Amino acid sequence: MANDKKITIRIVGESGEGIVSTGEILSRILQDMGQRLMTFRTYPAEIKGGQCLFQLRFSQRSLHTPGENPEILICFDEKSYFEHGMAKESGILIYNSDDTAPESTNSLLSIGIPFDSIAMNDIGNIQTKNMIALGALSHLLSLELDQVENLVAKRFAKKGESIVQANSRALHTGWSYVQDNYFYEHSGIPEEQADEQTVLLSGNQALVLGALAAGCRFYAGYPITPASSIMETMIRELPRFGGLGIQTEDEMAAIGAVIGASYAGEKAMTATSGPGFSLMQEMIGLASMTEIPVVIVDAQRAGPSTGMPTKMEQGDLLMALHGSHGEGPRVVMAPGTVEECFSLTVAAFNIAEKTRTPVILLTDLALAQRMASLPLTLFENVQAIDREILGEQIDGDSMPYSITETGVNPMALPGQPDGMYVPTGLEHDEHGHPNYSPDMHQKMTEKRHKKLGLAFEVHKGFEIFKSDEDESFEIGVISWGSTEGPLREALESLRRENINIPLMQLKLLNPLPRQALFRFIESVEKIVIPEHNYLGQLAGMIEALTAKPVIRLNKVTGLPFNPSELVDFIQKHIRLVPAYHEAV
Amino acid sequence: MSANLLAKDYKSDVKPIWCPRCGDFGFLSALYKTFEELQIKPHETVVVSGIGCAGRTPAFIKTYGFHGAHGRLLPIAMGIKLANPALKVIGVTGDGDAFAIGMGHFPHAIRRNVDMLYVVLDNSVYGLTKGQSSPTTPIDHKTATNPFGLDETPLDPVAIAIAAGAGFVARIFAGNMKEMRQILPRAFEYKGFAFIHALSPCSTFYDTFDLYQKHTRSLPDDYRPDNRIKALEYGSSKEPIYTGIFINERRATMDEKYDALLASVERNDGIRELAIKWGQ
Does A151 reach chain B within 8 Å, measured CB to CB? Predict the structure, then answer.
């Protein structure tokens, strides 16, 4: 029997103090011990200075969120202590006693460690503060110190032997400090239940694996937070798959190269964030018009303009759906979890290839950088769909844009003797020749839109989480993107109080799975849509489609929803407001 | 396909939209003839363009093509070439597309040395949108958008290409068929980024035909295209305006470098193994 205990650890300090590396090393060790993890980080846009927070949560079961109030809180300075408050009443606080002197805390155990003086006087390197903390944590969690030491040594091997040794000393010193000065009842970490193998991956890593598994062999991009790691990883890995990735001079060049490569036969992708996605809009229309399959990732961050480059938001939904002039059909998908960063990326390529249409994948900064434990089976037996290529049997008169039943034609690839054609952004006839006759634009616009329906042959476009017994509900929640995790956790906790609220998570935002959506909406009295944008971009769409008012919950703080705030909000709307008549 | 292809075999069914006496006709004719001379394989050739009068070129040629978005010819061409290096990629567009909206890509295509021929048909005016100033409109020429004749120094595309390090830089005049027929085959056979600045007058909005007849002159017989300083001197001369090959130097191309890389890396062990490598 797997233990259901979930532990949350939060590490806070100045950016540049090694907060993230401490968190990552700890995550890696817990992963090795068979725990399921989910992590969260938030940090300033600058390289050094400002507050940095790393949170990890672990359990023997899969997690929906990286947790709220931590069981263990580590603060490297007073600011962190005051801004991030206390650990839970049952929790443990570790603070920097050189810097902070909490008068009283409500935590079960407060551990003051003079990080600065130990690092300076005993270790002789101020940078080792985080390793002292890691040593202390290792004691609290009864980790094998050898294992921690090995992992740390591996991670810092490139920095030279003296750094590795200083880190080791710091780890031991932190461990001993807790051992010698504090007593507490030890609960330890449950042993691994070897049910399935997992891997700990970030959203961006999972997305890259999805692209490679789907057969993506060309990548072009331009540096931007939080999509840069997709580019760096693709450039590094693609040659090993016989493909290549490049950094271009701007985002218009990136998507231009991607369109060119796909026209010439390679599955191709670019990834960016809001500002770069804005620059790509015209070219999305070109891909749509010329019917060249491409995948575009927008890892959303807070906008408009440069906005908050290191904070999450869901502000680009309407741009993804409607950006670019005219009506250029495109498919829009949104993974809700790290696992879906893999599976929906595969689906995105499959849909792009099947429909010869641009597919936009909307992730966000929190999802891109979150790490989660994924079952290894996820990466086995991936089904990749390839575009239909003009066959030998088709003669030289075949038309590259024939009006077919599905709207899709086989693609000729440059190099094929009988398929010569010229894709153009101009409206064109079935041969691809420029043609502005009224009938032609009507027919071709219809053709391009008709293809989108094929997306449902690859992915049904939604998932519903609800209790089996009930058919109709007072409140139903609709969501898209990374709000899925906190919502599932919130609704599970409401269910424990016998409040059953179904959740419909939309994975395809265009085309929308309308039938399922209407059925879901019929089954509920009130619709709640929490979104990380101010206007309620999905809420507005649902209202327009159904003529039912939606209760909105809009959070644009740059931080993801906490399950508890979702619980509070939903509870406020249970039988307290008349149905359909209040929008918040 | 083994039969000898004639210039007319490279003509598509689409008739050019250009005005009578447009310089682009002269270039297109030279291009068809060059295709015949070199027996270019239509299905292994991709003519990429941007937007504008010159941007319509691919539609008139029976090869593969791509009529892209305004200013984005070079990235699209690069994507095509990298995806399938066996293709011969030719970019044909105008001065507005190349040197205004698309100028940001020009030095980057040069420094990457994308193996392609890039011909910019320069009429020093926006023709399709009816007579506005372009980046190469001379100072003394009033246009629809420069009615007061305010000075905006024109760009010198040949000088820019030479300074940016392009391996092959030439200028041709669409009114000089004989010279185009000499230079085009050499540009075709050049391995790397070959840039041709083609003076191609607009018969409707800025007819420079006589002007170029009078002021262009072929490079001296003893000119050697291996000296960048000399190339700049001849390339940027205004009187006369030299035509010919200013620079012709061989360098490793982008696709050659990637080929070498692909040959040298270890092959992947599969997605599952990569997931384990990153995640355990």
Answer: no
- The pLDDT value recorded for residue A83 is 81
Do residue B108 and residue A253 have CB atoms under 8 angstroms apart? yes
Whether residue A240 and residue B82 make contact (CB cut-off 8 A), yes or no, is no
- Give the span between the Cα atoms of B75 and A286, in whole angstroms: 13
Q: Say yes or no to pLDDT of A1 above 50.
A: no
Residue recorded with tokens 């504090």:
A182
Residues B108, B31 within the same domain: yes
Q: What is the pLDDT of residue A577?
A: 41
- For the entire predicted model, the pTM comes to 0.95
- Chain A residues with CB inside 8 Å of B56's CB? 434
CB contact under 8 A, B105 and A253: yes
Query: For the segment B191-224, what is each residue's pLDDT rounded down to a tens digit?
Result: 999 999 999 999 999 999 999 999 999 999 999 9
Same domain, B87 and B130: yes
Helix boundaries (H) for A333-424: 338-355, 365-369
Residue B267 shares a structural domain with residue B172: no
Q: What are phi and psi of B112, to 5 degrees?
A: -80, -20
C-alpha distances (whole Å) from A59 to each of A30, A196, B134 are 9, 14, 65
- How many other C-beta atoms are found inside a 10 Å radius of the C-beta of residue A2? 13
Complete domains list, chain A, with CATH: 7-181 (3.40.920.10), 200-379 (3.40.50.970), 462-583 (3.40.50.920)
Return the pLDDT at B51: 97
Q: Do A253 and B268 touch (CB under 8 A)?
A: no
User: ipTM > 0.95?
Assistant: yes
- Enclosing domain of residue B262: 252-280
Is the pLDDT at A397 greater than 90, yes or no? no
Name the nearest CA neighbour of A347 among A336, A333, A358: A333
Select from B9, B80, B97, B110 the residue whose CB has the most chain A CBs within 10 Å, as the one to mutate to test that interface: B80
Specify if B26 maps to a domain.
Answer: yes
Which band of pLDDT confidence, cut at 50, 70 and 90, is reported for residue B2? low
* Chain B touched by A570 (CB under 8 Å): no
Q: Is A577 on the interface with B (CB under 8 A)?
A: no
